[in-house]
Amino acid sequence: MAENVSEVLAGAAVLAAAVGFVIYAGQGTGFGGDVGRYPLKASFRSVEGITVGSDVKLAGVKVGSITDLQLNPQTYFADAEISMLDGVLLPDDSAILISSEGLLGGNFIEVIPGGSPINLEPGQEIEDTQGAVSLISLLIKFVGNGAKDAVTTTDPAADPAQP
């Protein structure tokens, strides 16, 4: 009889841990309740590296998350819906951009507040956006310019001052 009680208690502990994990994961990905939050919208040229649940940060502090990403078939831009904390009111001239935490870090949405005295209302769109910058394309440009500079500086025929 004592074995059955210990098995039931162990099973209950595992079940409680699983339920706690599901609740924690749901809140971390934005699937939890939106109590104390309001929606905003933004349209990006590219949302590379961003998914539903990605963080929205202001001054390095998480103030919201991405709740929806859809391709707009008319503009071919990615329309994002953002869930912001109620206490964070953004001026209507604020900017929003996709930033990287570093070379090996992930991407997140960064909000840069404007100076307007008028705040965005729930459901309004942030107009000033900047999409993700591809690290690969930047490296290709850098390497391409470096190779071009090396050719022009080592080729005597390319330098008119050389005899």
Any overview of this molecule?
The chain is of the alpha/beta class and 163 residues long. It folds into two domains: 1-33; 35-141, no CATH class. It is 29% helix and 29% strand. The mean pLDDT is 78.
What's the SSE blueprint?
Layout: H1 2-28, E1 37-44, E2 55-58, E3 61-71, E4 78-85, E5 95-100, E6 107-112, E7 125-126, E8 128-130, H2 135-154
Parallel strand pairs: 1-7, 2-6, 5-8
Antiparallel strand pairs: 1-4, 2-3, 3-4, 5-6
Organism: Rhodobacter ferrooxidans
InterPro entries: Mce/MlaD, MlaD_Phospholipid_Transporter
Domain Mce/MlaD: 38-114
Strand residue percentage = 25-35%
The residue fraction in helices comes out at 25-40%
Total beta-strand segments: 8
DSSP helix count? Answer: 2
Q: What is the spatial order of strands in the main beta sheet?
A: 7-1-4-3-2-6-5-8
Query: What's the pLDDT, averaged over the residues?
Result: 78
Number of domains: 2
Cα gyration radius (Å): 25 Å
Which stretches of 5+ consecutive residues score pLDDT under 50? Answer: none
SSE sequence, one letter per element: HEEEEEEEEH
Described by strand count, sense and barrel closure, the largest sheet is:
8 strands, mixed
- Global geometry: extended
Class based on secondary structure composition and strand pairing: alpha/beta
Query: What is the rounded distance between the termini?
Result: 102 Å
